[in-house]
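Exam revision sheet. Question 4 asks you to relate a sequence to its structure. Input first:
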Amino acid sequence: MRVHVPKVTNIPAESRSCLRSQVRTCVPIGGYTRVFDWLSCARFNELPEKQSNDAKAKHEGHRIRRLGKCSTVEEFWTEFKKAEKPSELQFTEAYYLMREPYDPQWEKPEHAGGGRWRLRHTECGNADYLWCELVMSAIGEKLTQLVDADNDIVGVGVSPRPSSVVIEIWTSALDFEASKTEEFAQRFNNLLPQPFYFKLVYYESFADVKKKGASK
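Answer key, structure tokens:
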């Protein structure tokens, strides 16, 4: 079945062609291409407005704003086009694309047995491109190649920083190959049209994140 991908002028041509190849793996339902239920969210740290773009400001909690929901490629593009680019976010903000019923709050019980991969890239100018490729790999189910059959990808995120960009890949269960950081970065790069250098790559369980928070 041929899948129509709406033209989006602010997405790199190689990214649009990448999506066309990915969505063919989805299941067509009623003339649309089913990409399962994904929830698009933006995370905002609760900081005074005058501190909102201060990279050294103290983070005290966060609030979530739901941007939309997509179950088809068409719905995804509609929501994606409306959202700001990661490069337009402030340093205390982040974007997340989560599979329902999950949301980007690791404190929730549904995340208790899981964790996340975090990859830091030092070129801020590549934030928009990396985010586009990351979410397309998510809805195209290509990220499942990064985990074993007993694990699931439940969400992805991107966070702009003053001198870098951090992307996240959330898993429903622990990744028992968490120590193989270079191998994971290579396998992730294999999903991209062009490889990127990640200065820092690591996996952390949400149980460990909770312990770190409690010790502060």
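Marking note for examiners. The longest helix spans residues 127-139.
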